[in-house]
Structure formats: C-alpha cells, structure tokens
Amino acid sequence: MRAPSALRFLAGCVALLSLVTAAHAGGGDLVTVKDFPDFAVAGKTLELTFMVWVPSLEPLEGLHPVVRATDSTGHAVRAIANASATGKYTAALILPEPGEWVTVVDTEYKSAATLPPLKVITPGTPAPNPFSLTTRGFRLFTLKGCNGCHLHPEVKEGRLYGPDLTGKRFVTEYLRRFLADPSITPVPEEVCSKDRSYCGSPYAMPNLNLKDAEIEALVAFITKK
Fold it and tell me: What interhelical angle do 172-180 and 212-222 show, nearest 10?
C-alpha cells in the first residue's frame, strides 16, 4: 500500500472509530417511547410503552428491559418491562412520592435511554401548567429517540448516526413534511460533527409515525432561534 493511500486509510479508520465511540457512549440501543405524560400522580400506576432498536432500525426482541425511576431525595423504584409485540415493551411503575422523577431504561446497555424529568403531584392537587410548544418539542427529541442519532446543542446526551443539528436551519414546511415522511430526502453519504472531529456513514431515518401535534412541537424546538 502506498504511503498516501495508507495515510488516507488510517485517517478513515480513526474517523470511523471516533464515530463508533461517540455513537455508543451511554449504550448503543435506541429507545423510542410511545407516550409520556406531562405529569403523573403519586401512588397511581404509570404505564410506559416503548420500542428498542439497533441503530440500523431493526427492532430488538427477547430483551428484558428494566425501567428505573429516581427522585431528588433518593427514592427509587424499578420495573421489568414485558414484551407486548415485535420490539415493543411495556413497564408499569408506581411513583410513590410527589416531586421530580427521572426515568432511565436499561436494555442490553445500562442507561440506554434517560427520559425527561417527570413531575409527580399529590393526589387531588391541581395539574401543573402545560408545557410550551418548544419545551414539549425538547422533551420529544429525547422521547422519540432523536438524540440517539443526532447531536443538538441543547440536548446533553446525543449520538451521531444522522446529521449534526448544531447550528442547522430548516424551512418549517419542509421539516414538517420530512418528519411525517423521512423518505422524501435521500440519505447523505456521510455525516460529520460540526467541528468535523468525526465522520461516518449514516443510517436512514425511520418513519416514527409521529402525530401532528408531535411534529408541530418538534418543529418548534428544532427551528427555534
């Protein structure tokens, strides 16, 4: 192998290794949550349904995911999720105390997904004020697994199997159509972090069958200035 070719090959290997390392930080499975409430009531069952995928978008079966929730005082509960369909799992949690709880999903990997904080209220108290559209989109970015493939400056945990969204600007109507049907845009040959510290081949974005309200919230978050 000639020296220039060898150097290019080595550089490609280093870039790919960097991509793999970044992609698998925190666990390589993708988790998409069907519905996640704005709040929960202490002592009542909270049912969570989710899917587990490998990055190539194949649903994973035969797992025994564990869902863990912890509040700021150290109270912790856990539940083993049951398989309900191909790649789908359901877990039932009872959060015993009011406060803010953080839920984590363990799949093949510990802490494969960390869900947005959930406010738990005392039975009989008024419901919290609803989230703004942008905040709802921020939460959905994690709940729908967007951070499993994209980096975003406002989301702490992210992996790069798709374009880095840092500093990206989108036409609102195009983004609506794309989120409803990602097949309208060809898969790029390569994706790189904004600083180009790592690059690699992306996976196609799946159709998440998002509801119209979910699309509007994600558009509001992704296009906010």
Answer: 140
